[in-house]
Design a protein that fits this description.
118 residues, alpha/beta, Rossmann fold, 5 helices, globular
Length: 118
């Protein structure tokens, strides 16, 4: 059996986190290991939960997703960070921070799955 891909969901709003958790629950090869509402909590959960992939929103209070991506990639370069946001204009910032992929919220679920499984 293939090893599950461990995913951490990071978004300041509960509804998008719930939606992503429900969507990812339909894929047996993916295990959601936790959720965070800001970048600081995300970095802590990466340290303790050891996810393979982080789904990262951009705009959050406190530490935003760009800064959190940079911190995560600096400390744990093997962790894949997928920026998932409504702010398409932040693509260059996210990629410069080390994001492995940049997707817009509402993209087709197979696009998200492909990015997670890459």
């Amino acid at each position: 059996m293939e090893r599950c891909i461990r995913v951490l969901i990071v978004d300041d709003l509960e509804r998008p986190r719930e939606g992503l958790r429900a969507l990812l629950a339909t894929y047996p090869q993916i295990e959601v290991i936790g959720e965070a509402a800001d970048g600081l909590a995300a970095a802590r959960l990466v340290e303790t939960g050891h996810p393979d992939v982080v789904l990262m929103d951009v705009r959050m209070l406190g530490m935003d997703g760009i800064e959190a991506t940079q911190q995560i990639k600096n400390r744990w370069p093997a962790v894949r960070v997928i920026t998932l946001t409504i702010y398409g204009e932040r693509r260059a910032d996210a990629l410069a921070a080390g994001s492995d992929a940049f997707l817009l919220k509402g993209c087709p679920s197979d696009e998200l799955l492909t990015a997670i499984l890459a």
